[in-house]
Design goal:
Layout (H helix, E strand, L loop, with lengths): L5 E7 L3 H12 L5 E3 L15 E2 L6 H15 L1 H5 L10 E5 L2 H16 L6 E3 L1 H7 L10 E5 L3 E2 L2 H14 L3 E3 L4 E6 L5 E5 L3 E9 L5 H7 L7 E10 L10 E4 L5 E5 L2 E6 L14 H14 L8 E11 L6 E4 L5 E5 L5 H18 L12 H5 L10
Parallel strand pairs: 1-2, 1-11, 2-8, 4-13, 11-18
Antiparallel strand pairs: 3-7, 4-6, 5-6, 9-10, 10-11, 12-15, 12-16, 13-14, 14-15, 17-18
Helix pairs in contact: 1-6, 1-9, 2-9
């Protein structure tokens, strides 16, 4: 491995967020050096469910979602790699009056933001969309057919391949152990074997973003939380359903091969970096899965894994400048990193090249936490 002694920009983290940024910077002619501690997409990106949605409760996330979806539609032509994007739709179902109130408010805001194909569905319409779903306790839902799923590994490697083609330098198995701020205000990025001088560092380290921020004295309110995913064996009669989310329990499912991919959060689990699978949690998930989708009764589990959400207090990403000149961040996506990375990378690249924050990123500023100007994202799985 040979690393240059100097670089215009160093990106720390080779998940989809970092690789998207490397590509979009390279399109501007800024050839960044990206350093990934393990392999590309080896962290949260490679362990996510691959969801691509535009249905959020905040305007800025809806816009970022729509822009990212459009970029995925152009992805193969732009990078030469098929992202595996399938617009199977996203369906949120609710069982409480508070869910329905939020759904109606979200749909109105989403349509006003330009998401024209999102609709509110009554329980009978949900039953028609997802045959076999248990609907006696449902009060309604929201559905957007242009949402869907894509391949995290293909999108990440597609961005990385295209970035390299444009001159970016990407190194795997290269851990950043420290970052020093020099007397001139530049940075000295230190790996196990090299030191690189640079004027710009971007923290795209996902669940480990807080540790990178500490290296330069920038506290980042990003904590890791374990999330499980399980995949069933092929079903006798495959369920052709959209990504279906039970809003009250956070249980979700989407087709995977001839079976279903299943996921769910555990609100009682504290922050940790653990990615070991808790098979005890599977029993809890299965109980909710079989209640909502009775056809899953008796389905075998083929595999399971756990990854990390990088969570902020308001479940919104942190994208932009920090108080340390030249130190930028793109982290804290709270489970939405894969679906927002295309647009986040494009906008942040524009910002870095211009050294100015575009309107689309103002609400994602780190400063919002010190000024208490936060708006929590409520559509979190």
């Amino acid at each position: 491995m040979s690393l240059p002694p100097r670089a215009t920009c160093v990106i720390v983290g080779g998940g989809v967020v970092g690789c998207s940024l490397a590509y979009h910077l390279a399109k501007h002619g800024l050839k960044a050096l990206l350093l990934e501690a393990h392999e590309l997409a080896g962290g949260s990106t490679g362990r996510c469910a691959g969801g691509v949605r535009q249905q959020f409760s905040t305007h800025q996330n809806v816009v970022l979602g729509m822009e990212s979806r459009n970029l995925l539609l152009q992805f193969a032509d732009e990078t030469g790699v098929d992202p595996g994007f399938r617009q199977i739709g996203y369906l949120f179902v609710g069982t409480q009056p508070s869910h329905i109130e939020l759904f109606h408010r979200n749909v109105a805001m989403q349509q006003a933001a330009g998401l024209r194909d999102v609709t509110f569905l009554e329980p009978d319409a949900i039953g028609e969309l997802v045959p076999g779903i248990r609907k006696e306790d449902l009060l309604g839902g929201t559905y957007c057919p242009s949402d869907g799923i894509a391949s995290p590994n293909e999108v990440t490697t597609g961005y990385a391949t295209a970035a390299r083609r444009l001159g970016a330098h990407i190194e795997e198995n290269t851990q950043v152990v420290d970052i020093e701020v020099t007397e001139s205000g530049a940075f000295r990025v230190i790996t196990g074997t090299h030191e690189i001088e640079t004027g710009i560092v971007v923290d795209c380290a996902g669940a480990h973003a807080g540790a990178v921020g500490q290296m330069v004295g920038v506290p980042l309110p990003v904590l890791p939380y374990r999330r499980h995913i399980f995949v069933t064996e092929p079903l006798a009669e495959p369920l052709r359903i959209p990504m279906t989310v039970d809003f009250g329990t956070s249980f979700y499912a989407h087709p995977e091969g001839g079976g279903l991919l299943l996921g769910m959060s555990d609100p009682d689990e504290g922050s940790s970096f653990s990615t070991e699978v808790s098979w005890d949690f599977l029993e809890h998930l299965v109980e909710h899965a079989v209640w909502r989708l009775p056809a899953l009764a008796g389905a075998g589990i083929k595999t399971g894994w756990a990854g990390l959400y990088e969570v902020t207090p308001d479940h919104q990403a942190i994208i932009g400048k920090t108080r340390v000149p030249g130190f930028w961040v793109s982290c804290g996506f709270s489970g939405h990193g894969f679906m927002q990375a295309p647009a986040a990378g494009a906008h942040l690249a524009d910002a870095i090249v211009a050294d100015a924050i575009p309107e689309q990123l103002v609400s994602f500023s780190l400063e919002r936490f010190s000024s208490e100007q936060t708006e929590p994202e409520l559509a979190v799985i």
